[in-house]
Amino acid sequence: MKYRVLFKMLGVLSVALVVPMVLALGIALWYREENIPLTWGGSIAVTLGLGLLLLALGRGLMADIFEREGLALVSLGWLLAAFCGSLPFVFGGVAGPAAAYFETMSGFTTTGASVFGDVQSLPRSLLFWRALTHWLGGLGIVVILLAVLPWFGSGGKQLYRSEVPGLDKGGLRPRIHDTAIALLKIYIAFTLAQSALLLVAGMSLFDAVCHTFATLATGGFSTRNLSVGDYNSLAVEIIITVFMALAGINFGVYYAMARGDWRAPFKNSEVKAYLLMLAVATGLITLNLMGLQAAPVSGAQPAQSASAAEPGANDADPTPPAWSPYTLPDALRKAAFQVVSITTTTGFSTDDFDQWPYFSRALLVTLMLIGACSGSTGGGTKVIRILILARVVWLYLERMFRPKTVRVVRVNDEPLPAEMLHIVPVFFALHIGVLVVGTLFMSWLGLPFQSALTSVIACVNNIGPGLELVGPMANYAAIPDVGKIFLSLTMLMGRLEFFSVCVLLFPSFWRRA
User: pTM of the full predicted structure?
Assistant: First the structure.
């Protein structure tokens, strides 16, 4: 490990974080907020001072970043960014260190889990900062640095591959700097387009920008306590739904389309499976919300029987259900928004889906685990891995009765390398292991099983809301501080897809090269 190179790059990252902080400072000055010197002056001073210290430890050394340094920079860079980003919440007096770190890690990893129950009471600058951490983390902090700083050397490709989620890193140009710039341009174009449409739909400029940042990053931080549902606007919901769905598609597809290949989405098997999954899940939940299911089970406790009821009770006075069926338009509207929001791991809500029928809740949890496309801003397992695993399972089952059959696993009509067939099962093993250990740990802290399980699923897959105590109308404030730090680490593991973080646990990784 070349520690001086690592210190220098972490110093560059810390100094670079001053720029978005200055933007938030401008918002604070515009709205004439109180406590600006401590909240933003102190945060900028500490972040800049830490960056200069790390640069001094690097002593001006310029060298290429190789595999070890790249992996360490990506993981440690996110930990450092979350620390620096948490300072405004701490200095502003709105959150303690653990809660502030949780909130910032949730922002940068685009998880969207929050410790704030009343976000509308926060200063505008902090609301903007929450949204901005989403936008920066959506494309990737390091990828943005690769775009604006062209001197990362041959390690740039390693950084890109460690930072961008998923298997498909297609669209890489000979110079990784050019690829990063192209992705940043597409990201900015989507940002401008959605902001303009939300303005036309009736949002204020501030809310439009903040919700755009959260949408395209598939993050989910809102400026309203009731999230997007607070606007009660069909136009706003349609715009956000469309852009969430677009953000869940591999950005390499948009890159190919920008270079003239307009058929790229139709040739990509992952995109087709992703869109089909959204349509089927929306249809099933729509029917379920209209009351169609095998047994008439409501979200409330079962009604008492006549024999068990109090004297005078009868079948005409059952226990009122917590949920009642929707009409077709309402069911379709709520189902479409929530399916896209959960599948893309955005986490916006227009309804309390924790009160929906059991089937709808179970399907939403399944979508949490699957997630969006590889190379998108979304989290989760990724659709491409589900496709690969399904084809591998089919192949091995076929070999049980046809042992001499030789087939090649293909994706997009291209054979997958043997290494990829080993990486996918390892990924699933790590994913399941983290979910199991995390659920046990959160249960040990005192959370009910459903809350413990879905809190870990929501954080590992960068979704935000879970069920019960961490449902869409609740928050993570009640989680103990040690639980907040633990969940912050699971957010990072999910965002970097386990490998880049797990290698840090090997002592041999830190030995000097």
Answer: 0.87
